[in-house]
Amino acid sequence: MNRLHRFFRTPEAIAGALILALLIAMALAAPLLFSGDPQAIAGPALLPPFHDWSLPLGTDRLGRDVLAELFHGARTSLAVGLAAAAAALLIGAVIGTLAGFAGGLVDEVLMRITDAFQTVPSFLLALAFVSIVGPSLGVVVAAIALGAWTGPARVARAEVLSIRERDYVAGARVIGMHPLEIAFREVLPNALPPVLALSSVIVAAAILTEAALSFLGLGDPNRVTWGGMIAEGRTVLRTAPFLSIIPGVSLVLTVLGVYLAGEGVVESTAVRRSLS
Amino acid sequence: MTRALRLLCRRLVGSVFVLLIVVIGSFLLLEAAPGDAVDAYIVSTGGDAGMIELLRHRWGLDQSELTRLANYLWALLHLDLGQSVTFSRPIRDVILERLPTTLILMGSATALSFGLGSALGIYAGARPGSFRDRFLSIGSLALYAVPGFWLGLVLIVVFAVDLRWVPIGGIETIASGKTGLAQATDIATHLVLPVSALGFIYLALYLRMMRAGMTEAWRQDFVLAARTRGLPRRRIVLAHVARNALLPLVTMLGLQSAQMLGGSVVIESVFAVPGLGRLAQEAVAGRDTPLLLGIILVSAVLVIVINLAVDLAYAFLDPRVGASEASA
User: Fold this and answer.
1) A252–B259: do the CB atoms touch at under 8 Å?
2) Full set of structural domains in chain A with CATH
């Protein structure tokens, strides 16, 4: 309760939490409120917003309900963002722990691989991966995770390097625990907090990357995505700019919400140093 | 100067290993892609099974994976990236043709984001916790949340469609016959929007780093010392606080180069700028995997070179860097 209090102290954190709550509600309610196929034709094409109350946000170039697409798009954005971030954090934590705990040649090889992944622009890597394997939700998640695990790996390694010298690790060694068991049962859980502090940045980046991939036509074709909606709206940018503006504003608010909530969590957990 | 030279040598050795891993990775991706160079060739020219057999043998594609990897490495050592299917030209030539445009775009966007970002960061960090600091912090976070391609579209709607101040896309007016200064101005007006779209996103990063660094620096003893000496506030802010917060930003310049190359893919697509990023999208559209991997390899080399340059600049700016290794 105390921590919750501290989280809701700044207006920024409250705003972030509200945006995220709204987004999650939209994602959960999408199949209930708009049970039909969001990609089905619902009315006349290019109906402007606020003209017909059965289609509040109007329709796109093919006559699809923009509001239904927006709700289902929230689902995709959130699912991909969370799944990709979870995968990246998991891969990063495991590789960072192995590198830091094993040391020597294993450390050297794993860190050079990390360097290599950081050298290649992650968006280009995701682009190449999706275009080679073929676009589907799982592949998009994997492609984004492929470029996002290096940060968590570096943080986990640095943390493990300090933890492995502690007494309880030496104790575990003395009682004959297997080194891998020590690494993953004793060291990894203790190295997690600073790694998890990266999650909001990674979720935000994953949502933006997914949007950019969909914008370039590399999203799952069977799902509505905000990036795909913007790409669709781009073809009628002069006559119907709202088709690009509505999903774009949703993306900005979502990512901002993730950042703000993330900062709130970090500030409420860290001991705040006073200014001045 | 030997200090910088030693640093350079150590970094070069590390870079060779990193590049080798990137090459092996891209080879694996190439192998995973459906179809090979022969399939692509046959699709564009036509031919029978005997011809396929002959070509596979001649191009060494019927050999073991290790031999093929060796062949791939050998070709790369000769700067041979293979043949592009979509362009029917050597990949190296296609990439070299597009590279300058992307470098101009990236360079200008970096200058914009670094210059304006650090200036605003100094403005915000001069008084941590003040209204303007809070405003700029939230504003930069909001800016950082904007997808680059969408910002590009908004800029197009406002400045190219409604106000008609600048052209919608492309790199220069087609067949205008302009040369010299006229051509340079033409290209510059075409690049205003893409550079802004790319630069404004990363501006937030430098602003926030500068501000965070300055907040940290205000607590240091040397700032207190400067205050007790009665130096004017402006001088403390610029020469003492901001100066110490500036160094990490230089490192960020190098780290950010890979991100910016990735960001230029969507920005170049939105504005139809014929650079490396748009080439990547064309490679995806044409299912030209060797071209895409060639772009990735060239980007990796570019990122490594930029980071080496930043490291050298850093060693030049900060005498502590690499000094501890001088005795080793």
Assistant:
1) no
2) 74-257 (1.10.3720.10)
